[in-house]
Specification:
Number of helices: 12
Strand content: 5-15%
Structural class: alpha/beta
Largest sheet: 4 strands, parallel
Distance between the termini: 38 Å
Radius of gyration: 19 Å
Shape: globular
Strand order of the largest sheet: 3-2-1-4
Mean pLDDT: 93
Low-confidence stretches: none
Oligomer: single chain
Number of strands: 7
Order of helices and strands: HEHEHEHHEHHHHEEHHEH
Helix content: 40-55%
């Protein structure tokens, strides 16, 4: 597949908006959106903004900075305070709504200053899952140019690769709070444990990883083809996760399933 048609559609969507503020997490979607917005509209009309909070892994924050520097993005950071919101900490099925609402609280004033529209790196495949954060953003006037341009995840990765972006094959990296089962309070201590555990495993050569937090127990998810390597490195992995505060370390034999904690919501009819 050539990139011309879907890329041209994305550029046209951005031109219609004229001036944008991109919510920039450094993932494959927001990275492509920030890069194309800058190339299409110019740095004066495309600002990339990263929301910094305890739910953003330090390594992801650092990568946002590096990408912005490499690509010449107009990049800013804003501090969000979703942890101050009891509804967010409660961690029910609407946690992402409160998180995105806090991000919009921080980003929207920047957009208002320059008469810009807040845009998010949402693609067509994201529309099929439980994503209350998208609802929160849309209610606040944010736009999803990649959805409007008809881009799905495969298209996003293909365009990114052909543009030479280093993020084209980056594994999905949802916020740290997504590792905590619904109904378990989000706390700084729990987020720190997850971040430390996942960072250690990535350093051991597992770039696609989830460490699900169940108090003293950690449930490791990796792609099916990496299960054997986890077992082979069992001793080092157990030591690393115990250093992150876990007493028990388990391996999910079903493998990595992004967003699988939403299954609990389906069972409750949410």
């Amino acid at each position: 597949m050539t990139i011309s048609d879907p890329l041209d559609r994305l550029r046209e969507e951005l031109r219609e908006l004229e001036r944008v503020v991109v919510a920039f997490s450094g993932g494959v979607d927001s990275a492509l959106l920030a890069f194309v917005a800058k190339e299409t509209l110019g740095t004066e009309n495309a600002v990339a903004v990263t929301a910094v909070s305890p739910s953003l892994a330090g390594a992801e924050h650092h990568e946002c900075s590096q990408l912005a520097d490499t690509w010449g993005l107009e990049w800013r950071e804003v501090i969000t305070d979703e942890m101050a919101n009891a509804a967010y900490r409660r961690n029910d099925g609407d946690r992402c709504f409160h998180c995105k609402d806090a991000i919009m609280d921080a980003v929207q004033p920047l957009a208002d200053e320059v008469g810009a529209t807040v845009v998010l790196g949402v693609n067509l495949d994201d529309l099929g899952d439980h994503r209350p954060g998208q609802t929160a953003a849309a209610q606040r006037g944010a736009r999803f140019p990649m959805v409007d341009a008809g881009l799905d995840k495969d298209m996003v990765r293909n365009i990114s690769k052909q543009l030479g972006l280093s993020t084209w094959d980056k594994p999905a990296a949802a916020c740290l709070a997504s590792r905590i089962p619904y109904g378990t309070t989000v706390t700084l201590e729990r987020l720190t444990s997850v971040e430390g555990a996942e960072f250690a495993l990535k350093q051991m050569g597992f770039p696609e990883i989830r460490v699900r937090h169940y108090e003293e127990m950690a449930r490791i998810e990796v792609p099916i083809d990496s299960l054997n390597r986890v077992v082979q490195q069992r001793e080092a992995i157990v030591a690393a996760l115990k250093s992150s505060g876990y007493r028990y370390v388990t391996l999910d034999l079903e493998g990595l399933r992004s967003g699988n904690l939403n299954d609990a919501l389906d069972q409750k009819g949410v």
